[in-house]
Structure formats: C-alpha cells, structure tokens
Write the structure tokens for this entry.
Amino acid sequence: MGLKALIYLGLFAVALIAFANWRAAVIERRAEAAFPIEGQLVEVDGVQVHAVVMGNGPDVVLIHGSSGNTRDMTFALAPILAETYRVIVFDRPGLGYSESFNPDGETIVEQADILRKAAAQLGAHKPIVAGQSYGGSVSLAWAVTHPDALSALVLIAPAAVPWDTPLDTFNTVAATPAGNALALPFITAFAPDWFVAKTLDQVFAPQVAPAGYARHFGPGLTMRRASMHANAKQRANLVHELADLQPRYGEISVPTEIVHGTADTTVGLEWHSQRLVDQIPGAELIELDGIGHMPQVVSAPEVAAAIDRAALRAGLR
C-alpha cells in the first residue's frame, strides 16, 4: 500500500505541475496579447532586442530596472523627453520582448554591450545613457566599459555599491533550474490580482503606483515564467558584478547626474548614491525629498531636468 500511495502521489504531482504549466502558458499568451511589442525588434549578434523610439533631438537611451520593461519608461518619462530628444527605450535581455542569451544570467557588462550595439544600429553612437535601479548598474557598466560610446550618464536610484545582505528568498529560488521548473509555473498560474497590485505598490513605497500605471505597464509581462527566471539570475549575480565594476568608477569622465529619493528603501540613498557621487569625478547628486524607488514615474519632470542638465554639460544643448 505504501508503494501504491507513493505512485499515486507522484502521478498527482506530475499532473499538478502539468496543469500549472498549461494554465501559465494561457495566462502568458493573454498578457502578451494585452501588452504587445511597443516598438521594433533590433537584431544584435543574433539576439532580438526590443526598442521603442520616439521624438527628435539629441539621443537619450533609457534602461529600466529589475522586473521591468519598456513600458515603465514610456508611461511618464519618455513622452516628456521626446519633446526635445530622440528617446530610445530598451527592454533589457530576458525581460519584456528582448531575448535572453546567457543561460547563467546576462551580466551587466554583457547587457551594456548588447544595448550599446542596438543603439548604434538605431543611429545613436554617443547617446545620453540613463538607467534606473538595476538599469543604473547597466548604465554604469556602459560608461566604464565603453567610455567613447556615450555623451553623458544619468543614474536614477542606481544599484551601485556592493552590499552584504543576502538575496531574497523568491529570487534565490527563482534563479535555480528547480525553482524555474517547479515554483514559477504556480506563481504565473495562480498569483491573484490583489497580490500583484500590492507588490507593485510596495515597489513605489511610500508612494503608490499612479492611476493607470498598471494598465500601461502590464505586470503580466513580468509574471511570465521566463522573465522571472531571467530576472532572478541577473539579480543573483549583481552584487558580485558590482564588486568588480566599482573600482573603475573613477574612470568615468562623462558628465554624470544622479537622482535618488530620500525615502527609497529598495536601493538606499545613503548606501548607494551618496557614496557613488564621490567616486565619479564631477558627478552631481539631486536628492528628491520623500520620494521612493520610482522617480522615473512619480518624479518624471525632475528626472527629465537631470537629463537636461547632463545634456547641457555635455554640450548637447
């Protein structure tokens, strides 16, 4: 009887996982239908990179943060900038509609390189590069490893300085093959809408997601199995990559503006930007009083003003 019970239990588990994957696939198709590609696909070294291009003027590249996509930037910031700049918004590899290409998780240096090449294909050879949170890490890697391929650097609540706290449980699990196969299908398939909305508000804390943001951003794109797995692998490697990159911040010679909220508890102002500003020659830091981790949405005019200052310092205005 014990053997039969184990067999039945195993069959039930297999059936449950198969059902979760089927339901997850259905939900993913719905998300992609509701939130399709905004821009165009650029092929770089055989990898598809999703880019949204708008406006005319000096080139600005916008790079989103962890678990994001182009829609995070096109909600508020990109339309403001498009009045006076040509704005290129990228999906980072493995997220949104850009392909993943490293099974171990794309490094910030790899991401900077492929986005630089995609920008060049679109005619932006020395853009202002602006990145938020993890996108700030990629932007720093761009400035360090390709110093002649940007005109100025704007960092928005950037993850810049290595830290000691361990990776959170979700990303620790999601980064593994077992977590990808056994846990993520259930999250995609069964995560309730109220939980997704609550998680989104936590990212914005102490603010909340503005009206219309979720309908524009498309949390369902983030909740796809492949996106969560790619994001988790990147997050798992980030602190070690920053430890390697940080000693070279002093090499950054382009005008640099840093914008960070004083109430950011996701990427702390004191630990990251207040230390970073002293490591990049000539960098300027603007602290946004009471603002959390999403200035590119809740303080888009202030972020746009930082990009204007960077453009002026770079001789583009």
